[in-house]
């Protein structure tokens, strides 16, 4: 139980920013009789005693810790807001630049033409809609091992599309 109490002291010191007081708190722990340091109830009792001890040593430590934590949370929140704003601006810029009707028609035409060519040539398309690559030579794409109806260009595409494929009704092949 002495080892658990030392870990408790270390945790409280790290939590409250009392890195210099670890030795003093460990010495205070050794002054408490061993009988009082054993058992689950004793562990809770020790926690309360050490928190009281922390308040005696440095009453402002907890406030400093809380202030630092709030400052970190504010910085993280600002960083997340900046990233979200940047992503939104990027999306707006890309959609406004390439969203003209002509570009959309050309992109759809190219996609349809590639699909027809791949089907006509007997080459398989990657089943992951985010990828959509067409195999350059026969046998390059691998079939789903469960149903053998959908083909993927690689393991990454298969794992990223698996949830959708399974939800769509991937049935195990019958032997």
TrEMBL record:
Metal-binding keyword on record: yes
UniProt keyword Ribosomal protein present: no
Keywords: Metal-binding, Zinc, Zinc-finger
Chain intervals with Low complexity compositional bias: 64-77
Segments forming domain MYND-type: 128-169
One GO MF term attached to the UniProt entry: zinc ion binding
Disordered: annotated span: 64-103
Domain of life: Eukaryota
InterPro entries: Znf_MYND
Protein name (Swiss-Prot/TrEMBL): MYND-type domain-containing protein
Organism this protein belongs to: Octactis speculum
């Amino acid at each position: 139980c002495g080892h658990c109490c030392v870990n408790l002291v270390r945790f409280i010191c790290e939590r409250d920013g009392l890195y210099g007081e670890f030795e003093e708190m460990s010495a205070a722990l050794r002054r408490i009789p061993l009988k009082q340091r054993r058992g689950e109830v004793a562990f809770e009792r020790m926690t309360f005693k050490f928190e009281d001890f922390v308040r005696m040593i440095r009453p402002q430590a907890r406030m400093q810790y809380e202030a630092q934590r709030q400052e970190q949370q504010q910085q993280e929140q600002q960083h997340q807001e900046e990233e979200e704003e940047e992503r939104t601006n990027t999306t707006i810029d890309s959609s406004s630049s390439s969203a003209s009707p002509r570009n959309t028609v050309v992109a759809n035409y190219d996609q349809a033409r590639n699909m027809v060519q791949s089907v006509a040539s007997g080459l398989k398309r990657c089943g992951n809609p985010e990828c959509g690559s067409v195999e350059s030579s026969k046998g390059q794409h691998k079939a789903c091992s469960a149903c053998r109806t959908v083909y993927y260009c690689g393991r990454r595409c298969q794992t990223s599309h698996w949830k959708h494929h399974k939800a769509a009704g991937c049935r195990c092949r019958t032997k």
